[in-house]
């Protein structure tokens, strides 16, 4: 069940990456990167529920915080620089 | 009892992963960037809540449940803020086709 959930999450991440690559506008790319990071947080949480993975739950905390900082920096960068 | 918890946790994990997949599909199905933002921001957060419940049922230690709860609270606080920042920056700086009036420009004109 855990493996199935991981596979589904990986599929979702692939869909987000495809949208980042296809664009067409910068808006789509930024939004998709944001969604991709959220999907990664979901994936790491599932991986931390596996007893054999060795991933501690605190890792999820770090990934979630890093994702938020990344999105905020990206937004600040676009607001300064323009399209 | 342990087996029951494992099954409940597994179902929650798969349901949460399906919500993440739904977000991935929505990002491709919706027509304009603002609708896509709605798909990319909301459903992974709901998916994370379900996955956190599933992880809590699977691991069953106090420290794990506390950490996962903290992650959910953090994500509920930061995900709307981050998406709002990204959407605002894109709206101000990039030309995006929009149906309806530009309400952000109208509000800022009212304040000035």
General description of the model:
The complex is a heterodimer of chains A (83) and B (112). Chain A is an all-alpha fold and 83 residues long. Chain A has three helices and no strands. Chain B is an all-alpha fold and 112 residues long. Chain B has one domain. In chain B, helix 2 runs antiparallel to helix 3. The longest helix of chain B has 32 residues. Chain B is elongated, with a radius of gyration of 19 Å. Chain B starts with a helix and ends with a helix. The interface between A and B is large, with 51 and 56 residues.
Topology:
The complex is a heterodimer of chains A (83) and B (112).
Chain A: H1 2-22, H2 26-48, H3 58-81
Chain B: H1 2-29, H2 33-59, H3 62-93, H4 103-111
Helix pairs in contact in B: 1-2, 2-3
Key phrases:
heterodimer; A: 83 residues; mainly alpha; 82% helix; B: 112 residues; 4 helices
Largest sheet of chain B: none
Question: How many beta strands in the DSSP annotation of chain A?
Answer: 0
Give the helix level of chain B as a range of percent: over 70%
The residue-averaged pLDDT of chain B reads: 87
Short synopsis of the structure:
The complex is a heterodimer of chains A (83) and B (112). Chain A is mainly α and 83 residues long.
């Amino acid at each position: 069940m855990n493996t199935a959930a991981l596979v589904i999450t990986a599929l979702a991440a692939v869909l987000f990456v495809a949208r980042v690559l296809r664009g067409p506008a910068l808006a789509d790319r930024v939004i998709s990167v944001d969604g991709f990071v959220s999907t990664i947080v979901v994936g790491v949480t599932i991986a931390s529920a596996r007893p054999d993975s060795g991933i501690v739950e605190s890792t999820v905390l770090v990934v979630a915080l890093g994702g938020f900082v990344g999105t905020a920096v990206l937004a600040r960068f676009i607001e300064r620089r323009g399209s | 009892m342990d087996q029951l918890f494992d099954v409940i946790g597994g179902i929650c994990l798969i349901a949460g992963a399906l919500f993440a997949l739904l977000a991935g599909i929505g990002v491709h199905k919706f027509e304009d960037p603002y609708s896509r933002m709605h798909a990319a921001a909301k459903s992974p957060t709901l998916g994370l809540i379900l996955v956190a419940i599933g992880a809590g049922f699977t691991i069953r230690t106090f420290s794990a449940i506390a950490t996962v709860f903290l992650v959910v609270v953090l994500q509920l606080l930061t995900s709307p803020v981050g998406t709002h920042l990204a959407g605002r920056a894109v709206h101000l700086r990039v030309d995006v086709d929009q149906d309806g009036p530009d309400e952000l420009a109208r509000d800022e004109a009212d304040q000035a």
